[in-house]
Amino acid sequence: MPFFHLVNCASLTFAPHAIYYYATPLSDYDAWPTSLKGSAVYCAAFFAKLICLATFVSTSEANLFDPAQELLQGLIGLLDVVGLYFALTKITARVSLSHKFQAIGLGWAFADSVLHRLAPLWMGARSMEFSWKYLQEGVHANANLVYSLSFAAVVSLLWMRKNKPEKLVPILYLSVFIHAFLPAIQSCTQQLLQLQPGEVLLLDLFSTTACAVASWRLYTACGA
Question: Where in the cell is it found (predicted)?
């Protein structure tokens, strides 16, 4: 039973990345090296954020809500924008821009799942006692895949799409900042409303879906 629970949770967490790769033209263009490089850039941005968080953000044993600290964490999240910009502009790929941002976003999401969820799955999902926690983490990983693709899409539209309408540029900037601050916004909402794990999952799914729909509308409006 513990082994099958581990397999189910791991499949829910990581299989969608492979399904997306093989169900889209990414596999036809052999874009896995681009995704792998995107994962490497994510790791660099992740450790840079860890250093900044350890240096500038103070931790409270009482776990009280501190708007200044939450804002600082959101600003540190802008390093993701820098990382995605670097990945999209500096990584060479023999694919179109629409496929490149998907490859980068896929690698970004996969690295996030590995760094945040692989160890907890391995340590926790093998226990004798069944827990919904790890299934929920798998759903969070799926939401993060959509979020990462959406984030990569708006960054590519803002800085790499040359023929976009000028009136959409401010909206693209706003969308990029919303994506960058979304984890901090979710954290604030969770603390202020004292949400339970199931409610946190619904919040994640709702906010990610909203960002993805907005990105798709912008992508369509830019003629991409």
Answer: Cell membrane; Endoplasmic reticulum membrane
